[in-house]
Amino acid sequence: MVSDPRELVHTLTEALGPTLVAALAGAKNSHTAESWASENGPQPWPWAAERIRFAAEQWRRISSIEDPDTARAWFVGANPWLQDDTPVNAIREGRFTDISHAIQALVDDSFSG
Fold first, then answer.
1. 3-7: which pairs have CB atoms within 8 A and are 24 or more residues apart?
2. Closest CA to 58 of 72, 46, 69, 48
3. Nearest 5°: phi and psi at 85?
4. Distance from C-alpha of 75 to C-alpha of 24, rounded to nearest angstrom
5. How much is the pTM?
6. Per residue in 67-98, pLDDT tens?
């Protein structure tokens, strides 16, 4: 499992795009996420790195059972397990337990979204 924040940002940027990675990490714009992914760029702030690690773990969970387009849509769609909020917003807000429950519902095929 990759734990280097730079590699995780790169992986998530390829999967979700820099705008969504910046949004879930709490950065102001996509350029910040792009700079985190670059070889000589800055490291993500500690609180952003925590969100990035969590999001990457959730991406792995979802993409192991769904195709990439469906997994990407899950991150941006309104989710009934999150009171119709999006997973991207929930991750940015640090609602990791809520996200874990929503993903488990998807894995268990009890997701109704």
1. 3/53, 5/36, 5/43, 5/44, 5/49, 5/52, 5/53, 6/36, 6/37, 6/38, 6/39, 6/41, 6/43
2. 72
3. -85, 170
4. 10
5. 0.91
6. 999 999 999 999 999 999 999 999 999 999 99
CA-nearest of 67, 75, 100 to 21 is 75
Q: Are 71 and 59 in contact (CB under 8 A)?
A: yes
Q: Of all residues in the chain, what percent are helix, strand and coil, respectively (each to 5)?
A: 65, 0, 30
Instruction: Tell me the residue type at 66.
Output: E
Cα 51 to Cα 44, 96, 102, 109, 112, distances in angstroms: 10, 9, 16, 25, 25
Give dist(CA 76, CA 71) in Å, integer.
9
